[in-house]
Amino acid sequence: MRRTTAALVAAAALLLTTGCSTETSDVAPPAPPAAEAAPAATAAGPVPGAAPSAAAAGPWDGDPASVAVRAYLREQALAVNARVADPSRLPAFRATLTTAALEWAVPLLAQNLGDEMPGPYPVGVLGSTREGQDRVVLQLCLQDRGWQVDRAGGNPVNTARYSTATAVVLRVDGRWLVDDVASAGGACSAADVVVERF
To answer: Are strands 161-172 and 175-187 parallel, antiparallel or unpaired?
Structure first.
């Protein structure tokens, strides 16, 4: 995740004080970005809106808050593969994040430009908590190591590891955007994530 590994997403850990919902939240998905596309999107790239390729999608995977997190991870991976960390050249990446999130997401992206991403980081949603009208916290399992591959040989750059995390998704001007992703310090497994490949 953002500060705990150079491989992934965000910091500012959030301790959950409310119980997990057993139903999907009623948040709306992020609006698609304007007609601009991320650089490096190719004919081999994912079909927008396509279902992830893994079999074990959980009950929250269709939830719009989950869709927002997956959109961020997809745009992050596309930017890594394009070797672009300049936010002015990444409108689709910026469109998945709050203004505050750009402060951690852009430096994180810049740290990860050397390797190749076979798809977005594998993620599974373990739970969803609505903390207010405009705030949802997702409990995640992420493959935060062993996903990136070296460009020369296509081999993983490190051993696979799966860790729990939280993602804060906020409604801003009617759109649901990722505000933070932080390690929760727990263990989870490959069975808890959904894999999507480009």
So the answer is: antiparallel
Quote the CA–CA distance of 162 and 140 in Å, as a whole number.
10
Q: Enumerate the H helices of the chain as residue ranges.
A: 64-82, 91-94, 99-111
Task: Give me the sheet containing 161-172, strands edge to edge.
Answer: 123-132, 135-145, 161-172, 175-187
* Encoded tokens for 34: 């304007």
Cα 105 to Cα 113: distance, rounded to the nearest angstrom: 13
124/59 Cα distance (integer angstroms)? 10
- This prediction has a pTM of 0.73
Amino acid at 164: T
pLDDT digits (tens, 9 = 90+) for 87-127: 999 999 999 999 999 999 999 999 988 889 999 999 999 99
Following CA atoms 170, 31, 97, 80 in sequence, which dihedral angle do they give, to the nearest 10 degrees?
Answer: 150
Reduce the secondary structure of 38-73 to three states and give it as a string: CCCCCCCCCCCCCCCCCCCCCCCCCCHHHHHHHHHH
